[in-house]
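Self-study notes.
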Amino acid sequence: RLGTEAALKYFETLTELPDEPITVEWVDGGFKVIE
């Protein structure tokens, strides 16, 4: 549930779709991109 919400929040900030897969996690009420 929180992973899906983190992904949605991240996609709201994008101006272009990424070419590679991304991983995000929910932290402190927001998202963090994992590299």
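Second protein, same conventions, sequence then structure:
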Amino acid sequence: MIEVVGIGDDGWSGLSEASRHLVERADTVIGSPRQLDLLPSMGQQERRTLPSPLRDNLQSLVGESGRHTVVLASGDPLLSGIGTTLIKAVGREAVRVHPALSSETLARARMGWSAESVDVVTLVRRSTDRFLPFVTPGARLVLLCSDGDGPAEVARLAAEAGAGTAQLTAWWHLGGQNEGSHSTTCAAWGDERTPDLVVVCLEVGVLDAEPQTLGPAPGRADDAFEHDGLITKRDVRATALARLRPWPGQVLWDLGAGSGAVGIEWCLAAPRARTVAIERDPDRADRVTQNAARFGVSSRVDVHVTSTSAAVRDDDLPRPDAVFLGGGLDRDVLDAAIAALRPGGRLVAHAVTRESEALLHEVHRTHGGSLTRLAVEHLEPLGRFNGWKPARSVVQWCLTRPPRSKESA
């Protein structure tokens, strides 16, 4: 059994009696140099620093049979901590976690924020832009940073997204003798670096402007994305997302991604939702990557430069919960995509030509689902007056794969 003991910046004095007893009786204590320095000397007890890279050396943490091993973690070991890594590696039965107050809890206490009013986002060993989808009017965010460069990077990204007036408070060494803080607006933060053990509290009020990138609702303006004209237009895109129905943690295949707009909005609509974007044109694939970073979902959009026909037969891709095909339809690709769907999965395909529309009628007869013709008109100047200008009509085919129980029946 590996005992994972959370320890704060207050060190030994902040541990509970039970946690102290675990450390005292351990044959081996493993932690970072900073954490080990917080402990008093204990005779012949072995002290070891965490191996690097951690995942490749986890076996050394398991210890010899019969030896008592304690692994130190910062605060709550299950909040972006080693506790989660160990449980995934050796199983829940082999790990027992003893949390201390987390930095997130201490930061909320300093700010006077209730838990239910806050979103916690970890930026530790992750792309800093991943907090951007949470930047909405009235939001309160606690951001766990990798190091002292984090607050300045958060401030810069928030200001660029239209939250320059948001109040940013950085707290470092929470609960310890060196605790400190600095607070100002994102626009005024500048390049100031803080100590590495830092947490950012971000309070968003009224946004500087009406941003096109923020919030969960689909159907963002087309010019919110970089594109070369190959983009599913906003009104049609919104109906596609409504039928794809993003769920937390699910995977979308965006086949022929173009600008990546559908896959990016899929990620923004549900927590932990991910997209596999397939685009054969390298320039467009780069554009998908850039757009994903702009919207703060770069870590959840996996771009592959390949053809759709090759992608749907790639066994290394995660099996999709939903599939979107915005054009360039092919019967073999459609059949393979349907076969790849998980039970209960959804597929949406669009056609704008007579030939691709005929194909959708064909697969509709074979597989069922629903066919819808979408016609959108926009008011535009017509001489001295105004008139309605129709956009190209789109035929939309939607299919939901039955749950496993119905398939079996």
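Instructor comment on the second fold: The CA atoms of residues 111 and 323 lie 43 Å apart.
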